[in-house]
# Entry
Amino acid sequence: TAEGNWRTSNAVNCDYIVVAGGGGGGGGRTHHGVAYHGGGGGAAGGYREDTSTGLDFLFNTTYAVSIGGGGGGGNNSDNGSSTGGSKGNNTTVAHSGGTFSATGGGLGGSASGYSSETGPRSGGTGGSGGGGGGSYNAAGSGGSGNEGSYSPAEGNDGGNGNSASYQWGSGGGGGGASADGTVGGNGSSSRGSNSGGSNSGAGGAGTTGFDSVLRAVGAHGGHHGEIDSNDANTGGGGAGGWQSSGSSGASGVVVLRYTSNATLTGSNGATVSTTTSGDLKTSVISTSGDITFT
# Structure
């Protein structure tokens, strides 16, 4: 927000970061108890940040905030019934002009042996798209990101799974929005900078916000180990399963930065943690409820 526009007589203007819940990773596929193919990585929740226009909140007015939960991981199977993960949930925050939202991350597709295994094998659409599951000959496709059709985009696409016969590849989840977000890697790709096991699809990079916190990291597809960045309130995706179920995605968050002359309090379940630096306060809202500025 431009200097001098933080506060009027009846409202406060806030810079914001709004992150939705990450998608759950797809379940792996075993054969006679032995690892066979890896599930697709869950996508990061949609990431939206602004430090120019911001959001306005009237003083002494209660606004609802809903923090999106992460999606659950899909189930591993030895008999062809592996399942994809679950989509993350949207995060929404009411303000004086309406309601502002970010879209939950797409699910990671399930691993499979053949096309008769329905999974779903492909990654789901969402704030970022989930990775497709690996397979013998019927790998899933990566899901599309920016489901909310926002500009700038809230996320990126997921990587395709790999039909690798006995090479066992898997897709990666999509990353967060802004310049640092990238598309998740294919299951057959070489290892990325934060990759999992050999030939796993790398998750898309996250975004570091104005509060210097990295969020909205896409998870890797399952392949000889799983990697994700899905701590609470980061919006990260859950890793795809490898001889295991997929991991759950992380919950989302709302971060507001505003003049230190105002005070933000939470009620009805909202947890608000505030720090002050100079003439600005930064409040992290980590659970759903109501907020009020005074």
